[in-house]
DNA sequence: GCCCAGGGAATCG
DNA sequence: CGATTCCATGGG
C-alpha cells in the first residue's frame, strides 16, 4: 500500500472500484458515519473523529497523523485485507459477479465489539435513520465529549453503562430494546459475557454465547459477528437476503464459505437497488 | 401459536 | 394526502 503524508493529512493510493468509502460507511454496517455534502465522510470510532475524502485514485484522511492512521484507521478500515483475492473467490457465480459490479467497493470494517453489538441490538426491527438517532443520543448521554467546541461524543464503554436501568435510557428512542441493552451491559459487568473471548471462539460457540443476551436472536448475533467481530464467514439473513435466496438461490447459496458475509454485503446492496 | 411492545420510514391506496 | 405495512425478538 502506497502512503504519504502532507499538510497534516494521510494519503493512501487506492482504486475507488476496489474500495468505496462512502459505500462502506453508509451501507448499514456502522451508524456513526455520515456522508457530507461534498462527498467526504465524517464520523467517530475508537474515541477519535475522522473525516475521509476519496478521489478515483486515493483516500485522504484529514488532520490525521501517520501513527493514528497505522494504529487505528488502517485496521479499522481493513486496509490490510486483500479484497481482490476475496472477490476472485466469489467470481464463480453470475449473480455474485453482478452484485460485485454494483457494490464491490464495500468492505467489512473492524468496529469496536461493544459498540457494534449494542448497535445491532438496537437495529432489530428498526430503520437506519432511527437507529442512528438512538445511538447518537446514547453517545450524547453517556459518552465522553471529544472536544470543547463540537458536539462530538464517544460511544460509551460497558463500564460507563454499568448499573444503568431502562429508566436511564428513556427518551433515547430505543423503544422496547432498552431492556436488551441493560441485559447486555449486566452480562458484561458480571463477567458472564467477555467480548474478547468471543473473538477466539469457534463460530458456533460464539453464536450460542451471544444469543444468551436478551434481544439477540439469529439475525442480530450474525450481524454482531460479521460487523463487530470481523467474522467474515457470518451470514446475516434479513428480509432482503431472504429475497435474494428465494430469487437467485432456490437450491441453496453456493458461497457459504469463509467469505460468505462479504458476499452477503454485496448481495444485500445489489438486491435493494435492483428491486 | 398469537399478539404485543417504540416509532420512523417505506409503501400503498 | 392519510392509511397501512415493515422490521427481529422475547414475554405474556
Total helices: the number is: 13
Mean pLDDT: 97
Sheet with the most strands: spatial strand order:
1-2-6-5-4-3
Given helix and strand content, the structural type is alpha+beta
**Using DSSP, what is the number of strands?**
6
Query: Tell me, what's the shape?
Result: globular
Sheet with most strands: 6 strands, antiparallel
Gyration radius, in Å: 19 Å
Binned strand content: 5-15%
Helix-strand string: EEHEEEEHHHHHHHHHHHH
Please estimate the helix content.
40-55%
Low-confidence stretches: none
Distance between the termini: 37 Å
Report on the structure:
By secondary structure, the protein is of the alpha+beta class. 45% of the residues lie in helices and 10% in strands. It contains 13 helices and 6 strands. It has helices at residues 21-25, 66-76, 83-89, 94-103, 113-123, 128-142, 158-161, 178-189, 195-200, 203-210, 218-228, 239-248, 260-274, and strands at 3-6, 9-13, 33-35, 41-45, 48-54, 58-61. Strands 1-2-6-5-4-3 form a 6-stranded antiparallel sheet. Helix 5 (113-123) runs antiparallel to helix 11 and helix 12 (239-248) crosses helix 13 (260-274). The longest helix has 15 residues, at 128-142. The protein is globular. The model has no long low-confidence stretch (mean pLDDT 97). The structure holds a DNA duplex (13 and 12 nucleotides).
